[in-house]
Design a protein that fits this description.
Elements: E1 4-5, H1 6-17, E2 29-32, E3 37-38, E4 40-46, H2 49-57, E5 62-67, H3 80-91, E6 95-98, H4 101-105, H5 111-119, E7 125-127, E8 133-142, H6 144-155, E9 160-163, E10 169-174, H7 183-188, E11 193-196, H8 201-210, E12 213-216, H9 219-222, H10 226-238, E13 241-244
Parallel strand pairs: 4-5, 4-13, 5-6, 10-11, 11-12
Antiparallel strand pairs: 1-3, 2-6, 7-8, 8-10, 9-12
């Protein structure tokens, strides 16, 4: 396996994801600087302390995540839990790379695209800002119960299903993670069902009143795949080792 400069890793991520094209809630790219050379890359959904420790156990030089450490509106001081996570990274010389919306949106390696492959859904169109809403016209109608069973079997988590659960589903839309409010655009675009990760109190009322089926399939469960796909692609491109650690999260 090769050893490459950390800057080469960041350049490869940027070439694929084009993070400068996005207005995001967080800094995309290198968030914590570690070793100048990278031999082993580990990916995880979130930069949790558990994920960082497991990356260190795998002798990682860099950690790639979807949910990094710094978000708009957060207290900017390095104290408490955030300080302890940063200290872990520094102690082990691990560089932290985080990509949020750019990783959701990528048409091949993004979370929405990867969820489609895992579920066997064809992406017929994309809508919304940055194309974050994916659309599939199913070849035949399916029931909400059937789709819920498929989500449970393939994602390993039983979804919460609300709304018009008896409605046949032919026009399916989805957006991973905390995209429950995209249900309004899905309704406007004539969706029979919308799949996302999280649910809010208002989501149930919207789904019931609009006559749409809503599936809350888990934020973590729907976003496990993009970081793996990106990590594998860049590792293959640069010749470094790649592994994935799953700090499982039921939410």
């Amino acid at each position: 396996m090769a050893v490459v400069p950390s800057a080469a890793l960041e350049a490869a991520f940027a070439q694929i994801l084009e993070p400068g094209s996005f207005e995001d809630y967080c800094p995309n790219g290198l968030q914590v600087e570690g070793k100048p050379q990278v031999h082993r890359l580990v990916s995880a959904v979130s930069a949790s302390a558990a994920a960082i420790r497991r990356a260190a156990a795998l002798r990682a030089d860099a950690l790639l995540v979807h949910h990094g450490l710094f978000w708009r509106g957060d207290d900017q001081r390095l104290t408490g839990l955030r300080f302890r996570r940063v200290r872990l990274l520094i102690e082990h010389g691990i560089s932290l790379f985080a990509y949020h919306l750019p990783l959701d949106a990528h048409p091949e390696l993004g979370n929405n695209a990867c969820l489609a492959r895992v579920m066997g859904w064809r992406v017929d169109a994309r809508a919304g800002r940055y194309g974050l809403l994916s659309i599939s016209e199913l070849e035949r109608s399916v029931s909400a119960r059937s789709l819920a069973t498929s989500l449970r079997q393939r994602l390993g988590r039983s979804p919460l299903v609300v709304g018009a659960r008896e409605r046949p589903i032919r026009r399916l839309m989805w957006c991973t993670g905390a995209a429950q409010d995209e249900i309004e655009e899905a309704i406007a675009l004539g969706a029979d069902a919308f799949v996302s990760g999280e649910i809010s109190e208002r989501t149930t009322h919207l789904a019931r009143e609009a006559g749409i089926v809503y599936f809350a399939a888990g934020h973590h469960a729907t976003e496990r795949y993009g970081v793996q796909a990106l990590g594998e692609a860049v590792a293959a491109q640069l010749g470094v080792w790649h592994g994935f650690v799953d700090d499982d999260n039921p939410a």
